[in-house]
């Protein structure tokens, strides 16, 4: 019986097999095999530089017909381009990445992959020219590194690499050094680039130029130990300045760095102390005078004198020895004061300038001898005085200057550079006491001599710390105050100041937006650019 059952089972299987219809798809197609050339195995590039790769693609079926494929370039799972040829401004942070190029055949969706090792460095940590300007009403950064020849400006790169824009209406761009020194950066992060704009006093890393927070009410509450807690309701930053008073290397290799940052906000004085191995300390917050005083300080504050700190034995000193006094101007009284240990002393009790607002001041080639610029209803007046003697304040009208002029004092001679919208001047400050105002004979170069037409204006200048060259920021936007349109109309011109007449060293056209502010950005502090202790 078992045998019959087995035979019947075999017969049933044979019957089922005979009825099975093979419906498989055996219509095979040849696969297009793609060969890719022109992509290096590894690429090393500076952040914010252009990465350009133009691959050569050839298919076994379609040949060089690149229209048969779609393309995708990715870094760290982020798509950076969907074109065959890569033209990408590198915005990722310093580090090592895998650059993935994917080629997809449109009909079959078959993919071909090519990978490249991408190493990104920080070019922004070097010496360079840093510009902040505006486009479509928003501030942005442009940067040129100076440590390699024939480098190109990285233009308006900040906003497209950050979720939030840099700010609006930038008014002052400045660099500090201790909070940008290597040891400080390693411990706390670099905060050496500072910008005053509508959003406040913004800090950027001097290494990466990334956003690093603000010096605001929370900053003072975090680092201050002042009691009672000062009133911060009027804190609107207007001005900042700094002085490095210690930069010393010991025989044991350690370095001591100390620096003060002065901030004028809402008419009050704020002083922040930075040291290499410590968090910031707040020395003054919203100081508006001693008991019984109510001052409104102009956006100007500076140390009244300095001289190079000499080396002592094997201790190398690159900082400044100062008078330990600052100069400020009270708009309520129209009086220049020295400020020391929380006390105000009138520079000259018999001289006042009612209705004036000081907007620039600096110590000069002579210890204690100071120069300042102030304005009243748009008219400028220069003043000189000596805080180390009983000399009275001398002053003179300066119709060639304007409240928007930028000033740079020479460290070893009695001259100051300043700009108007149409030219650069070099003025002997000893002429103030003689009643000799700056005039057209003090102008050393004009925009016309630089090849510009009437609609162009000088927006800003910056003197290099070696005092041998200067950068000039020029705007060709005319009446456009927002920087509208795609074309950049801001230029940077670098001139040599050696010789009787400035000579153009470099001219960079269309590298920034409207109302540019410019500084020479330095990798580290160097007194007069001649003595570096790093």
Automatic annotation (TrEMBL):
Residues 1-20 form the signal peptide. Keywords: Lipoprotein, Signal. It holds the Pfam family PKD_2. This is Putative lipoprotein. It comes from Segatella baroniae F0067.
């Amino acid at each position: 019986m078992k045998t019959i059952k087995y035979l019947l089972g075999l017969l049933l299987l044979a019957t089922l097999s005979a009825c099975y219809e093979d419906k498989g798809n055996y219509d095979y197609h040849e696969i297009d095999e793609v060969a890719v050339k022109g992509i290096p195995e590894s690429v090393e590039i500076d952040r914010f530089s252009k990465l350009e790769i133009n691959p050569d693609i050839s298919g076994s079926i379609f040949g060089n017909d690149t229209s048969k494929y779609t393309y995708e370039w990715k870094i760290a799972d982020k798509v950076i381009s969907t074109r065959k040829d890569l033209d990408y401004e590198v915005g990722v942070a310093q580090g090592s990445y895998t650059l993935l190029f994917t080629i997809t055949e449109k009909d079959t969706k078959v993919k071909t992959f090519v990978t490249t090792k991408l190493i990104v460095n920080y070019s922004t940590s070097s010496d360079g020219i840093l510009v902040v300007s505006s486009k479509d009403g928003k501030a942005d950064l442009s940067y040129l590194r100076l440590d390699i020849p024939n480098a190109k400006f990285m233009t308006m790169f900040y906003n497209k690499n950050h979720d939030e824009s840099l700010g609006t209406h930038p008014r002052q761009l400045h660099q500090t050094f201790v909070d940008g020194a290597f040891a400080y950066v390693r411990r706390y992060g670099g905060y050496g680039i500072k910008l005053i704009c509508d959003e406040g006093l913004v800090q950027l890393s001097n290494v990466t130029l990334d956003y690093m927070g603000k010096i605001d009410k929370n900053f003072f509450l975090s680092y201050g130990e002042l009691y009672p807690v000062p009133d911060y309701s009027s804190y609107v930053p207007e001005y900042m300045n700094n002085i490095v008073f210690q930069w010393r290397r010991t025989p044991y290799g350690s370095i001591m760095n100390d620096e003060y940052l002065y901030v004028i906000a809402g008419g009050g004085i704020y002083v922040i102390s930075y040291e290499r191995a410590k968090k910031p300390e707040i020395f003054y917050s919203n100081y508006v005078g001693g008991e019984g005083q109510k001052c409104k300080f102009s956006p100007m504050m500076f140390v009244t004198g300095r001289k190079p700190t000499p080396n002592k034995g094997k201790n190398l000193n690159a900082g400044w020895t100062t008078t330990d006094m600052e100069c400020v101007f009270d708009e309520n009284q129209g009086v220049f004061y020295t400020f020391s240990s929380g006390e105000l002393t009138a520079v000259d009790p018999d001289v006042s300038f009612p209705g004036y607002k000081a907007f620039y001041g600096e110590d000069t080639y002579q210890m204690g001898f100071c120069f300042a610029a102030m304005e009243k209803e748009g008219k400028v007046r220069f003043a000189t005085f000596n805080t180390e003697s009983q000399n009275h304040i001398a002053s003179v009208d300066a119709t060639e200057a304007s409240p928007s002029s930028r000033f740079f004092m020479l460290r070893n001679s009695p001259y100051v550079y300043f700009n108007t919208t149409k030219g650069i001047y070099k003025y002997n400050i000893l002429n103030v006491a003689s009643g000799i105002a700056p005039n057209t004979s003090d102008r050393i170069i004009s925009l016309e001599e630089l090849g510009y037409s009437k609609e162009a204006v000088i927006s800003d200048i910056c003197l290099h710390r070696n005092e041998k060259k200067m950068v000039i920021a020029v705007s060709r936007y005319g009446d456009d105050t927002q920087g509208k349109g795609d074309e950049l109309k801001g230029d940077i011109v670098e001139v040599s100041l050696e010789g009787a007449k400035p000579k153009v060293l470099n001219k960079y056209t269309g590298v920034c937006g409207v109302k540019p502010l410019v500084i020479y950005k330095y990798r580290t502090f160097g007194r007069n650019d001649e003595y570096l202790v790093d």
